[in-house]
Amino acid sequence: MLEIKNLHAKVEDQPILRGIDLTVNPGEVHAIMGPNGSGKSTLSHVLAGRDDYEITEGSVSYKGEDLLEMEPEERAAHGLFLAFQYPIEIPGVATMTFLKTAVNSQRKLRGEDELATPDFMKLVREKADQLKVSQDMLRRSVNVGFSGGEKKRAEILQMAVLDPTLCVLDETDSGLDIDALRVVADGVNALRGPDRGMVIITHYQRLLNYIVPDHVHVLSAGKIVRSGGKELALELEESGYAAYEADAA
Amino acid sequence: MAAVQETVEQVKGLAVEQYKYGFFTDIESEKAPKGLNEDIVKFISAKKGEPEWMLEWRLDAYRRWRNLDEPSWAKVKYPPVDFDDLYYYSAPKRADDGPLSLDEVDPELLRTYEKLGIPLREQEVLAGVQGAKVAVDAVFDSVSVVTTFKEELAKSGVIFCPISEAVQTHPELVQKYLGSVVPVTDNFYATLNSAVFSDGSFVYIPEGVRCPMELSTYFRINESQTGQFERTLIIADKGSYVSYLEGCTAPMRDENQLHAAVVELIAHDDAEIKYSTVQNWYPGDAEGVGGIYNFVTKRGDCRGKNSKISWTQVETGSAITWKYPSCILRGDNSRGEFYSIAISNGHQQIDSGTKMIHLGKNTSSRIISKGVSAGKSSNTYRGLVSAHRRASGARNHTQCDSLLIGQTCSAHTVPYIESKNSTAKFEHEATTSKIGDDQLFYCRQRGLNEEEAVALIVNGFCKEVLQQLPMEFAVEAQALVGISLEGSVG
Amino acid sequence: MSIQRSEAETAYLEAFAEAGEVLPKAQWLEPARQAARDSFAETGLPHRRDEAWRWTDLRTVLDTGFPPALTGSQSEVPAGVKSPFTALDRHVIMFVDGHLRAELSDYEGLCGAAQCVCIDEDLDDAPQWLREKFGSAFTDEHDAVSALNTVFLTGGIAISVPAGTKVDKPVELIFVNTGTEPQTLNTRCLLVLGDGAEITLLETHLGVGDGRYVANSWTEVFLGTGARAEHIKVQNETASAVHLANTHSVIGAGATFNSLCLSAGAQTTRNQIKSRLDGEGGHVGIAGAYMLSDRQHCDTALMVDHAVPECTSGELFKCVMDDHARGIFQGKIIVRPDAQKTDGMQMTQGLLLSETAEFDAKPELEIFADDVRCTHGATCGELDEDQMFYLRSRGIPADEAKSLLIAAFIGEAVDEIESEEIRDLVKAYVAELRDGAGDGS
User: Fold this and answer.
1) Which domain holds residue A69?
2) What pLDDT is attached to residue B130?
3) Fewer CB within 10 Å of terminal CB in chain A, N or C?
4) A117-130 vs A148-162: helix axis angle to the nearest 10?
């Protein structure tokens, strides 16, 4: 469903991605690991359509369409979801309002009818309970005054409600304690399914104990330098990234 | 409440007369007659043997000055200055022919600077009295008495000399840059300065040169009823760097003395100027009698792209301070900084701040102002941050904090923010608070006395700014913060 | 000393002479009128050399004379001119072109609970409370806006709510200006709350079509011990109008005054908001919102005076400027020497939606007491890129994301209103205004 070919991207003349190749099929969970500065977060932002990056080479096709040609909201409507490493605070916009606007905007873009309010409320409540997101949080402004754990849970809640086909999780484990990590991981695992692909970007192996990947890739200096099964993550935990950082230099 | 009250009472007991630079040097001096007219301007110009163009420039300023009014918008109150009852020129005898070699300088003068802790003998500096080398231009009343390390600086092409000398030796540079940042008619005091300035420092750093040592000027007002009107001009050519320090003291007198300086900085492409001031003019006594009126115009022009000008000031002295070191961010990607500590006590009045004028693209500025008011003083931050139409991507962050000690002082914040460009992003924050009883108690419980505790807390409050000072000044400034509050609260 | 008078100044001065014949008569008011005349004759219209007017030049704005509307008008109110509070159960007092119109008003119920005095009648028999409080909230300085209002006043209402009385439903003052001819409309509202009294006062200023006029309105609110008032002002004058307004409040011990001023209309707006905390334990909250486009110009000069200890104040202004619009906020918090334990907070935020829009702010603190906590903040910029991207990454199209963020931005000020019902009506009105503007950006 996602095919990245020889992707190069730069920011302010600084090349960050230097030829990424990656294919994600429905039902697969891919983990992308790598040292700081290897381009992990850039990859997630490029996929979601942040315009601070200039794509200099390569292509990304998603369900047979050119992803790079789409506006961020079109990508979302086509089922791409990015769980942000640092979810953005939006004062004055209640989380519930935000979710409802997002759900209906996507439906509108896909030519579907808007969801009736009672159905929407029921859907959100159900997912919120599973993720231990309180009603109070839903009333509060988007991510404003949320703790680190609350922000990440709210991201996963959005993911569950928006029902994407490709989930990109950018360092979702950062800043979480072990209990919060388990709640988030359970939420993600509940969304695993034969039609849905996932890309999990992480620095640490820890998260992968809870969300077991099918494939693990090591990103270094803007390139995937090694790919393997889930055992590769454990190996990295042992040996660290030193070898790959040396490569980069 | 109680703890602060006690501190205030206790500190009140200490006399303001602790001002340790308050001595007077008994040295014979030559003065121009009192008052100001065209003849005085001609007298000053003639004393310096100035070329015709310089005299004309002064006379033009003088004629314009006569039609100007003293500004009244600042939050300071003082009786009208009688500009006819001042000496506009005073020089130690024998020194009026310009700076001498150190051997020719009156030993009394050398002792004065020794007492002030300013090393004028290069060998003393070399002998390791101080960690790093600092070149000094010492200005005594109206004239520069000595400039150190000139030869060594000349080796790297750096020009560091009294401005009166520069008028003679580098007229092309002076003519090109003098008044190009602070125009003759900029304001009442700047215009007055343009007419009667007698000395000050001139610095030129050639292209690509990193000035090998800190440069500094030490200003001393000695003579009574004398105004000091120094003029400083610093030019950093492409890709150069200079750090410049300025210090000031004066004897204790029960009259008010006028100090109206003008400082102009010009930074070309990729150049950086760091200008630090520790201003400790005599602040007046506990009843508010005497002290310096410090009416100063300081402005830097980031003329070239990627240039940077940084002002750091520690203002503890003067009866009245009226001073707004500013940056004109003309070059694209240029940066301006203003770090200020202003401590007022006794009857001192401070109205100080900065202007950051964003003209070029992607210019940025940062302002950190820490005001501490104590005694019966008044302390005002006044600032302007503006973005013009073309200044896309301009950024400013301003942090303005005031600390009040005691119930008879006041603190004011008057920022102006003007944005004519939607991509400019300005953020301004200001807080006013007092030293918390719990903080004081905590320190005392750990064994500090109240004064030490206050000094400690105030130093903490000012830390972000103190860190900006060059090492040579930081220690002195930190001590000064403590002394100011020790001796002067109440 | 010779004074160069502008055309408008001369016209106003000439009009002073005739005005006495037709205005509400009251001997007790004469000294104040005379003082206002003298002060205007001396200083004239303000211009940029006055620090308080550095961003608004009233001499240029009032370049031609707008004669005072001395005689009543019987203009109809077009059906399209509708208050945002129509759906609310409330008392209505309607003014058209500066004169009270009884047949369009409905406030009999209010007169049972409170004393109401119509200001365009003969005021010689005015009750004592009215004489005492009228124009007395801030007397320290005369400015041209207040002076013109005092001299040319043609209509208004004075309401006194007795101690302990809670007015049953909100009271709305609607000022409709038809602008059929260029004139100055001078109105006044005086609200005096006894100890423990409570009221919600809505003030709606609406213009008709593209009429050109100057509306000069002055609202004074006095709150007794423990009184509570909520004041919501919505200003939507015509695109050619000038709106000049004084809003003064004096807050007694333990009293609470909470207000919102939404400025959406008028070519030029000048809001002069002053509040004095006069008794311990008082609280004032002042919120403001600007929705400006085209070449609109809106300047608020706000002053909160902490005269006594242990009071709290909070100001929040959210200003949105599109096209060539210019928003200005000048806010000053004064803490007097005795006002220990003051807690004052002020925040101003400007949002520029177009390259040619402009925002100026001068948030001032003037502190004479040490045991206080005062903060102010000011920010200015365009829509946050990260927020825009976040919304879009969730599938919300750019236009909608922008609207959502603008509504949220303004909404923070509107949220300062305590009554949920009124809050929702104001938010709906804000949305309506934005839709009506056709999102020209």
Assistant:
1) 2-248
2) 43
3) C
4) 130
| Chain C residues within an 8 Å CB radius of A162 | 394-395
Quickly state the pLDDT bin for B414 (edges 50, 70, 90).
Answer: very high
The region of weakest confidence among B154-158, B239-243, C60-64, C189-193 is C60-64
Alpha helix (H) residue ranges in B237-385 = none
Predicted-complex ipTM score: 0.85
Whether residue C390 and residue A84 make contact (CB cut-off 8 A), yes or no, is yes
Percent of chain B, pLDDT > 70? 79
Q: How many CB atoms lie within 10 A of CB B103?
A: 5
Q: How confident is the model at residue A248 (pLDDT cuts 50, 70, 90)?
A: very low
Angstroms from C283 CA to nearest CA on chain B: 19
Integer-rounded Cα radius of gyration of chain B: 22
- Count of beta carbons in the 10 Å neighbourhood of residue B15: 12
- Give the three-state DSSP class for A190: helix
Beta bridge partners of B205: B236
Tokens of A30: 């891919």
Pull the structure tokens for residue C248. 């003064």
Alpha helices in chain A (DSSP H): 40-48, 72-77, 95-109, 117-130, 135-139, 148-162, 178-191, 206-210, 231-239, 242-248
The band of B122, judged by pLDDT with boundaries at 50, 70 and 90, is low
Q: B423 contacts in C (CB within 8 Å)?
A: 355, 381-382
Q: How many domains does chain A have?
A: 1
* Residue B156 Cα distances to A28, B101, B149, B159, B205, angstroms: 66, 21, 12, 9, 9
Diameter over CA atoms, chain C: 68
Task: Pull the structure tokens for residue B364.
Answer: 């940025």
- Residue C91's DSSP bridge partners are C171
Q: What is the pTM of this model?
A: 0.86
The answer to whether A73 contacts C397, with C-beta atoms less than 8 Å apart, is: yes
Q: Which of A49, A90, A102 sits opposite C387 (nearest CB)?
A: A90
Q: Does the pLDDT of residue C252 top 90, yes or no?
A: yes
Chains touching chain C, criterion 3+ CB pairs below 8 Å: A, B
Query: Do C358 and B419 lie within an 8 Å CB cutoff?
Result: yes
Mutation to test the B interface, candidates C292, C303, C349, C370, most B Cβ within 10 Å? C370
Of the residues A75, A101, A151, A167, the best mutation for testing chain C's interface (the one with the most C CB atoms within 10 Å of its CB) is A101
Asked which of A232-241, B203-212, C352-361 is least confident by mean pLDDT, the reply is A232-241
Q: What is the 3-state secondary structure of C108-161?
A: HHHHHHCEEEECCCCCCCCCHHHHHHCCCCCCCCCCHHHHHHHHHCCEEEEEEE
Q: Is A118 exposed, middle or buried (0-12, 13-18, 19+ CB in 10 A)?
A: exposed
Using a CB-CB distance cutoff of 8 angstroms, which residues of chain A are in contact with residue C401? Answer: 73
The span from the CA of C67 to the CA of C285, in Å, is 36
What value does the CA radius of gyration of chain A take, rounded to a whole number of Å? Answer: 18
Domain segments of chain C as ranges:
7-279, 385-441
CA distance A139 to A127: 15
How far apart are alpha carbons C124 and C120 in whole angstroms?
Answer: 11
The answer to whether chain A touches chain B by having 3 or more C-beta pairs less than 8 angstroms apart is: no
For A107, counting Cβ atoms within 10 Å of its Cβ (0-12 exposed, 13-18 middle, 19+ buried), the class is middle
Q: Are B417 and C361 an interchain contact pair (Cβ–Cβ within 8 Å)?
A: yes
CA distance B137 to B143: 10
Cα of B226 to nearest chain C Cα, Å: 34
- Ranges assigned E (strand) in B32-100: 90-92
Q: Report yes or no: B410 at the C interface, CB cutoff 8 Å.
A: yes
C321: closest CA of chain B, how far (Å): 10
CATH number, domain of A54, equals: 3.40.50.300
